[in-house]
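Re: that backbone. Tokens:
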């Protein structure tokens, strides 16, 4: 029976199946997951992973028994337990019993070191998805089949910067070079949502993401700055003056399955409710065509609160909504709302892939359990420039710098981190004219490193100051709140005292009234008391007589009813006798 379940679940993962309406109502496609209070983000991620290609490999990986052979330490044992738990949850597809995901959540938190994922509170579904995929890669990266599946989910993007042309020069005015291009792989593509729009299409949002940014950024040419050999800090004037730069993101490799993360809230900012519309055919600028097959919706104000649900595509017009234990058929309009947080897109057959020849030379960096590098910030960054055919010296300098980097890395492996400081001291002892070209480049590199350390220290100090200010503001707000609470408590106490005093005064007045009445009664003469007694006796006698009359009338009415009943019964008996006699007479006549 397990084989049948696997086939049905894979049918749900495909988008080209043309099943009937009855199949969508069958329980074999449903997976009911138990929510222990704050595990809806785990349930939504598991439901969305059913539409990916990871599930088939992990099932075969567990059933083949190769995972048990690779267990050599406690960490590998935990990873195997996690994959086994994940596969056992997927094997419950079609059953009516709900499955708990608490064990999977605790294993992900313990393996990744992110203990806050299992602290009993709501967490971010995008972060949990990324940590879970990183654990899968750590366990199964030695298998070629897994690497091919991983390549289907991972794309590459390039971040390039170009100095704006000035007097016909496309690059730096001095050396004519541009900053080096940065190529990074991604598993999840974070996309920012514009604040000034209420509705935007997903295709336009992605095309705007992979385009030239409109923000103005300034930076200096690092190669020209290194040639100046500044004694201490760069004055940032003349050749080292900051210039305007245009930034652009390009999609080099379009994955088969693209996971888009809609960044609706950043830090403590309010959540954006912009509706991102998507059709069955999403076309990008490079010619790739995608179709949506799954979404994760977040209902709430922040990512650390609210509720997560999942929508999976069943047919062209039918979607299935998974809300923990519940599952319900719906349309694409229901799945496309202002609460969409993660959208899973699948590349359509026959779509173009404008990857170019650059992708073959790209080597993917090993993934860790942390988040992948995001888009670089809009701040000044020093980067080495690409050599041109005119300036061959820059190319030679770049080769020398790469050799120096490798040497420094080798030394850092065998020697402590302070080794480069000793080399810097030896270089500073020499005069600037006696230094070799390699020593000058080392000096500039070490000076940059010192500046970076200073910048990091300054950033930390600023962050600490900002945290102190925030804590002071919070403390002041807490003090004000506590003062208001004390004021309210004082008011309540005063009200309670006043109510008690009023109750005591009312009791005193009642006692006084009783005393007055007793005095009046004692002051009256005994004759008046006897008159009152006589009057009371007369009232009692009258009431008794009235009661006796009422009882007599009731008895009379009852007797009348009894007599009437008897008479009615007698009349009925006489009528029956007459009927019987009449029947006998008729019978005798018939006999005659």
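Recovered sequence:
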């Amino acid at each position: 029976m397990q084989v049948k379940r696997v086939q049905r679940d894979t049918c749900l993962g495909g988008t080209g199946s043309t099943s009937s309406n009855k199949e969508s109502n069958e329980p074999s496609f449903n997976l009911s997951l138990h929510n222990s209070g704050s595990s809806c983000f785990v349930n939504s991620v598991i439901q969305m992973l059913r539409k990916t290609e990871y599930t088939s490999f992990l099932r075969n990986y567990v059933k083949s028994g190769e995972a048990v052979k690779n267990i050599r330490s406690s960490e590998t044992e935990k990873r195997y337990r996690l994959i086994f738990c994940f596969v056992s949850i997927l094997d419950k597809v079609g059953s009516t019993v709900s499955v708990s995901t608490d064990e999977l959540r605790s294993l992900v938190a313990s393996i990744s070191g992110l203990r806050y994922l299992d602290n009993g509170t709501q967490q971010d579904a995008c972060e949990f998805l990324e940590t879970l995929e990183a654990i899968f890669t750590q366990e199964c990266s030695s298998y070629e089949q897994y690497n091919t599946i991983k390549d289907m989910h991972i794309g590459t993007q390039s971040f390039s910067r170009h100095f704006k042309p000035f007097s016909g020069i496309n690059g730096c005015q001095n050396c004519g070079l541009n900053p080096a291009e940065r190529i990074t792989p991604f598993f999840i593509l974070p996309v920012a949502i514009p604040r000034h729009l209420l509705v935007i299409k997903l295709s336009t949002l992605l095309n705007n993401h992979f385009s030239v940014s409109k923000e103005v950024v300034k930076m200096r040419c690092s190669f020209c700055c290194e040639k100046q050999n500044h004694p201490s800090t760069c004055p940032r004037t003349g050749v080292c003056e900051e210039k305007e730069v245009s930034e652009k993101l390009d999609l080099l490799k379009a994955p088969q399955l693209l996971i888009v993360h809609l960044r609706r809230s950043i830090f403590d900012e309010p959540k954006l409710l912009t509706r991102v519309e998507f059709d069955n055919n999403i076309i990008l600028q490079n010619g790739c065509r995608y179709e949506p097959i799954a979404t994760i919706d977040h209902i709430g104000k922040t990512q650390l609160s609210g509720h997560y649900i999942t929508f999976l595509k069943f047919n062209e017009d039918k979607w299935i909504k998974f809300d923990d234990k519940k599952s319900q058929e719906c349309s694409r309009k229901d799945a496309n709302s202002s609460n969409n947080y993660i959208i899973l897109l699948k590349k359509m057959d026959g779509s173009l892939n404008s990857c170019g020849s650059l992708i073959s030379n790209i080597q993917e960096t090993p993934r860790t359990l942390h988040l992948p590098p995001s888009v670089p910030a809009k701040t000044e960054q020093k980067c080495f420039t690409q050599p041109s055919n005119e300036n061959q010296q820059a190319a030679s300098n770049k080769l020398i710098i790469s050799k120096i980097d490798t040497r420094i890395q080798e030394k850092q492996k065998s020697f402590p981190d302070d080794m480069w400081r000793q080399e810097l001291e030896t270089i500073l002892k020499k005069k600037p004219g006696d230094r070799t070209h390699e020593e000058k480049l080392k000096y500039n590199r070490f000076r940059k490193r010192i500046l970076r350390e200073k910048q990091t220290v300054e950033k930390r100090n600023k962050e600490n100051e900002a945290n102190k200010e925030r804590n002071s503001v919070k403390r002041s707000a807490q003090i004000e709140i506590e003062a208001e609470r004390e004021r309210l408590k004082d008011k309540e106490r005063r009200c309670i005292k006043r109510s008690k005093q009023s109750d005591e005064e009312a009791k005193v007045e009642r006692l006084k009234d009783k005393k007055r009445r007793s005095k009046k009664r004692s002051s009256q003469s005994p004759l008046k008391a006897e008159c009152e007694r006589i009057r009371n006796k007369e009232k009692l006698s009258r009431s008794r007589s009235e009661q006796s009359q009422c009882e007599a009338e009731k008895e009379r009415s009852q007797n009348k009813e009894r007599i009437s009943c008897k008479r009615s019964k007698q009349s009925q008996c006489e009528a029956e006798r007459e009927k019987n006699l009449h029947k006998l007479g008729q019978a005798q006549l018939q006999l005659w």
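The CA atoms of residues 105 and 298 lie 19 Å apart. The chain has 16 helices and 16 strands.
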